[in-house]
From TrEMBL:
Keyword terms: Cell membrane, Membrane, Transmembrane, Transmembrane helix
Gene Ontology BP annotations: lipopolysaccharide transport; transmembrane transport
Compartments where located: Cell membrane
InterPro entries recorded: LptG, LptG/LptF_permease
PANTHER family: SLR0882 PROTEIN-RELATED, YJGP_YJGQ FAMILY PERMEASE
Domain of life of the native organism: Bacteria
TM helices/strands, residue ranges: 12-37, 68-87, 107-125, 309-326, 338-356
GO cellular component: ATP-binding cassette (ABC) transporter complex
The organism's taxonomic lineage, starting at the top: Bacteria, Pseudomonadati, Pseudomonadota, Alphaproteobacteria, Sphingomonadales
Membrane topology classification: Multi-pass membrane protein
Predominant place of localization: membrane
Protein's UniProt name: Permease
Parts forming coiled coils: none
Amino acid sequence: MLLDFFPSRRLTIYLAKMFALRIIAVLAMLVLVLLMLDLLGKTGNILAVDGNGDAEIWKYASLRAPQLAARFLPYSVLLATIITLAGLNQNSEVIAMKAAGLSAHQILAPLLLSGMVVSVISFTFNERVVTRANATLSAWENVDYAAVPVEPASRGNVYFSDGRNILMAASASGRGEQTVFTDVTFYERDDNDMIARQIRAESASFANPGWQLQGAVAFSVARAQTQELGDVIVAPGVTLGQVELGRVNPDAETLPQLSRSIAALESSGRRTSELEAKWWHKISGPLSAMLMPLLGAVAGFGLARSGNLFVRAVIGMALGFAYFVVDNAALAMGSFGGYPPLLAAWAPFFLFLLVGETVLVRTEE
């Protein structure tokens, strides 16, 4: 049997089914429109590479669509809430349910349950699909859509500072001491920050300390001469911690992977507040889908014939979008240490949970 918090079984299924169909419809509309707009700007860059054609465009779309779906799923739940409740209100179904003795919380219960299911699906989808799409698309973009990298975890166009000197590479692959740079350039600068010598090599490996260039060739700017150096060690100040810190993309790593990255950076004395906030947000973010029915609930109550239905829908939409603004602001504060990571990830959720509950109780209960 259902708890007293829910209406009858038939009514619960009716509301949940209606809500779920509207979530799917709104999400599909948003993803298709935004994907088409995104392709208008990216198709030229993709086709500019020799050998790219329709297959690469479809490949980009298949990698971009999961990102858009994950990002706009909470917005879809919010809009679906407003559309569902406004329709029920317009057709006097809310009045009928209240006349049958249901409270506002009981009317919203099937929507909250559906939001909880969507949150679980969103979390699983993010961990299993979106992280892989983010990693592959990021690596592909780093090589300007030239080819899909064999190893999605590799990075392109890496850049590290060693005091005045600069170490650059076309790509970095491998983890830890097995990290390898390819197409490496090392710039030595003088006291005036002018380039004094350029050293190039096909590859470089970690030498602890420094990086060993294989078959290095140096060019002296002052003498305009080239010299073969063979194997040489450069950039002793570029540590594995720097490389790992630059490698970590929290949007492209699952919770276990991000946990290992945070532990590795902490062991090397690196600051991890931003990554810890993102770790917690991987949990709190999907839960926003459960919060949206509460924030958009104001659109479903009040008399539709009073002319305030549109105003109530706008208020519900404003509450929902205010949550996303505060959520992004809190994450930004947590990135530079203004908030503790746990507070940055969870404070907006609980704040708007209280706000939504307060609005519902004071207006309807």
